[in-house]
Amino acid sequence: MRLAKYLAHAGVASRRAAVELVRAGRVTVDGVRETDPARELGTELVELDGRPVAGLEQRVTYAVHKPEGVVSTVRDTHGRPTVTGLVQDARRLYPVGRLDADSSGLILLTNDGELANLLTHPRHGVPKTYRARVGGGTPSAATLARLCAGVELDDGPTAPARARLVGGDEIELELREGRKRQVRRMCAAVGHPVRSLVRVRFGALELGDLPPGASRRLGDAEVAGLRAAARR
């Protein structure tokens, strides 16, 4: 197993963060500083900042209904509540697929760095579905067509999406990219600023009737479904 993957599976950090830890020179293998995240391991002793890294822990993934006002980080310098505080688990968990503080809905927490990387890496394009209540009246068919074709934003055009009207002022959008505040910026660009936003689906996993602030541990079949969505 490669060093960065070992660290991620041991719950030290996400796969990407583990790569940075190694490159920063904070990891030693059998007492020798190692800066190659791809170093293959056997039975060597791995230490982070001079402390032994425990063996591989059981991998877990939770579906969480993030309420508005909760930030999608492990900790917050401004003292705001974080999404990791919504799950009672002693393992070090990391959020997968961030949501803005003023948005709500489905987010994942996991100690499985490989899964997190599969679900968030742009090349996999795992779909995420949102419901947005918008201002500016009822969106027209032409507006929905613009959202589907791609919208020009200040950081370039968006990729094609799926959009449909599910209520008088509510749009459902499925995206396969994850730019910062993308749904809000897309809707504003077509004249319908978002008033509330909830993510209802991540891959094939649905938020369902999970109440705000609640979480549930995913079963093996659900995790396998997430992996399959990333490998299509």
Characterize the structure shown.
This protein is α+β, with helices and mostly antiparallel strands and 232 residues long. It has 3 domains: 3-52, RNA-binding S4 domain (Structural Genomics Hypothetical 15.5 Kd Protein In mrcA-pckA Intergenic Region, Chain A, Roll); 61-122 and 205-230, Alpha-Beta Plaits; 128-202, Alpha-L RNA-binding motif (Alpha-Beta Plaits). Helices cover 22% and strands 27% of the residues. The chain has 6 helices and 15 strands. The protein has helices at residues 3-9, 15-23, 113-120, 141-149, 182-189, 220-230; strands at 27-29, 32-33, 46-48, 51-52, 61-66, 94-96, 104-110, 128-134, 152-153, 156-157, 162-167, 170-175, 194-202, 205-206, 215-217. Strands 5, 6, 7, 8, 11, 12, 13, 14 and 15 form a 9-stranded mixed beta sheet that branches. The protein has a 4-stranded antiparallel beta sheet with strand order 2-1-3-4. A two-stranded antiparallel sheet has the order 9-10. Strand 11 (162-167) and strand 12 form a beta hairpin. The longest helix is centred in the last third of the chain and has 11 residues, at 220-230. The model has no long low-confidence stretch (mean pLDDT 91).
